[in-house]
Specification:
The chain is α/β, with parallel strands linked by helices. The protein has helices spanning 2-6, 103-106, 113-117, 135-146, 158-171, 187-198, 227-249, 277-280, 289-311, 336-345; strands at 22-26, 32-36, 41-43, 53-55, 63-67, 73-77, 82-84, 93-95, 126-130, 150-155, 176-181, 206-209, 253-258, 316-321.
Length: 368
């Protein structure tokens, strides 16, 4: 349909093209009806298929509904700076009383965060995302903000965090986004961040523990802990503990721990089956970057499971998520060997703009 093309949207029902002289319209409450201009009549059923349809969810992000001087409703696309009398939600119609598709049927490897969140109004929701100034974390923050959530980008580098905020505001000037300083390699910084957030006196509905380092050289943080273990796990563990009371008061709320399938390729127990603390924060002699990463991701999952067991009765759920093996991000930046491997794999990886919701950015880390 030419009108949908003008609106910048694909026609998802092209197999049900309207006959000449017919027009598809929507009511204010989202039901689709059809106008026959030749016979000057309207009907609820599609003139070819006989199906009844309705729009799925609210307006896409960046769109607003207005009324002209004649009382006719039109739609404003603030992102692309244009208007149309065609309801953009017509690109997302569904049959009346359809068989509900499973998640696997509905989304695939090409799904974007914006598609997954289509129709969800997150106004009034408060979200914290660690490591959200670039990469997958940024895409997650942007998608949530463009759907109305108040998103706090918790970043080690304040300047980059502020730049990320501006990039989101360029897309939608009404987005509620803010950058706050959080260095997971410093437990004192984690404490200061939690105190600063609590001073805002706002709820916390979603906490996404997304930041991580990969392939970092061995070094100790200011807390005398191995950096990969502290940044990927212990810093987040401490952050959740400090914000647990806010999460419980904000229920229903959720914590999302971003882990990895690589947790399967390691162990944190000794030969007798007991937890070996020396494996969590190893000495330089016993350190291997890949194993350190795998162990930290295993800790993420174990923590998430226990957190859900303890807090779900209080309305706070916790889930761990694997972001996908074929996503190209800045995960490799700490060592040239990983950079070479990721560069060779680049043609076979998923573009960052197709990242699903609640997946994560890998940060670089430099020893003090």
């Amino acid at each position: 349909m030419a009108a949908l093309k003008y609106a910048g949207l694909e026609d998802t029902d092209s197999e049900e093209e309207l006959p000449p002289g017919w027009e598809e319209r929507t009511t204010k409450d989202g039901w689709v009806y059809y106008a026959n201009h030749l016979e000057e009549k309207t009907q609820w059923e599609h003139p070819k298929s006989g199906k009844r349809k309705r729009v799925a969810g609210g307006l896409p992000y960046g769109w607003e509904q207005e009324t002209d001087e004649n009382g006719q409703v039109y739609f404003v696309d603030h992102i692309n700076k244009r208007t149309t009398y065609l309801d953009p939600r017509l690109a997302f119609t569904v049959e009346d009383n359809p068989v509900k598709p499973t998640t696997r049927q509905k989304y695939d490897g090409n799904s974007t965060a914006m598609e997954i969140l289509q129709g969800h109004d997150l106004s009034g929701k408060v979200v914290i995302i660690t490591g959200a100034n670039s990469g997958i974390g940024f895409e997650t923050a942007k998608s949530l903000a463009l759907h109305g959530a108040y998103v706090i980008l918790a970043c080690r580098n304040t300047s980059r965090g502020n730049d990320a905020v501006q990039r989101i505001l360029v897309e939608w000037h009404k987005a509620k986004v803010e950058a706050m300083t959080l260095d997971l390699a410093s437990l004192q910084s984690v404490q200061h961040f939690a105190e600063a957030f609590k001073s805002k006196n706002v709820p916390l509905h979603i906490l996404i523990c997304n930041a991580a380092v990969f392939g970092a050289p061995w070094c100790l943080t200011e807390d005398d802990l191995e950096s990969t273990f502290q940044v990927n796990h212990l810093g987040h563990f401490y952050l959740v503990q400090l914000l647990e009371d806010v999460l419980r008061r904000s229920s229903p709320a959720r914590v999302v721990m971003v882990s990895s399938e690589s947790h399967r390729f390691t162990e944190i127990k000794d030969s007798s089956g007991k937890l070996d603390f020396s494996l969590l924060s190893p000495s330089k002699k016993e350190y291997w970057a890949m194993l350190a990463y795998n162990r930290s991701k295993l800790c993420n999952i174990l923590f998430s499971n226990e957190l859900n067991r303890r807090l779900s009765p209080h309305g706070v759920t916790s889930n761990s998520v694997h972001p996908g093996n074929m996503i190209y991000s800045s995960i490799h930046r700490n060592w040239w060997v990983y950079t070479l491997l990721f560069t060779l794999a680049r043609p076979f990886t998923k573009s960052m703009v197709h990242t699903p919701d609640f997946v994560h950015e890998k940060q670089s880390f430099r020893c003090p």
